[in-house]
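sorry for the late reply, my laptop died twice this morning and i had to redo everyting from scratch. anyway the thing you sent over, i finally got around to it. pasting the sequence first so we're on the same page, its 286 residues, then the predicted structure underneath. double check i copied it right bc i was rushing
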Amino acid sequence: MKKYLSYLYILSAGSLWGLIGLFNRNLTAGGLPATSIVLVRNLGGLAVLTLVFLLTDRSVFRVSPRHLPYFFGTGVISVLFFTLCYFTSQQVSSLAVAAILLYTAPTFVVVLSALLWKDKITKKKLAALVITFLGCSFVSGVWGGGLTVTPLGFALGIGSGFFYGLYSIFGRYALEHYKPFTVTFYTFVFAGAGALVVSFHPQELAVLGSPRMALLAVGLVVVSTVLPYLLYTRGLAEVDSGKASILASIEPVVAAIVGILAFGEPMSPMVLLGLGCILASVYILK
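ok and here's the structure:
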């Protein structure tokens, strides 16, 4: 039962990450550039987590300085670099290419977990990995034609997948010493500070003065940032990194459904096929 609850945490996290387009698209349409969305997401996540833990559990703030490199890894090398690569990749390549390259992440995680912790690359895990990648490619529309990719776009896309996957790697090291809430909090200490250094443009943030834009920013921070990272890190404490990364690939399915329901995008047979593939991979890993 504990294992299945951890699976539920990870699937819930992936689903909440899949809602990010609901907020990002509207924030972008309202005049907030991608780099400032990165700042709002990471610094806002830090602010919310700080307030929550000040009121509920201050033990979260206690860490040993010798373990800070783990959180630099989860916060800067993973969360910050992933978002910067992914958002830039979307600007120089087609959205489909950016999405499918992002979901090379489980491959990196499975390989690195085998090298670092001798996790077995089982037939089940390999089958789930292949089916997940196919499912993500169907959902992203990669088979629909009309794709555009440049060498820079390809490099950024692969980079986004690599850095995205590294959260599971650095997070696993950190979870050997700290509870999930501590790992999540210090991830955003570093991600928020890093975003402040590379993405702080005060004039761009003026659009958040609008009540609608401010509400969208709060939704981005709480619904598609803080909650999923808390849930994913909690699940990662009980599930090996490779499985966790594959299970989180429910994200593009939810993103496709959001596009259909919220933005009137067509429900294509490919989306349904992709949904079936990803659900099949979850079943294989049970």
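Residues 2-284 form one domain.
thats about all i looked at so far, will dig more tmrw
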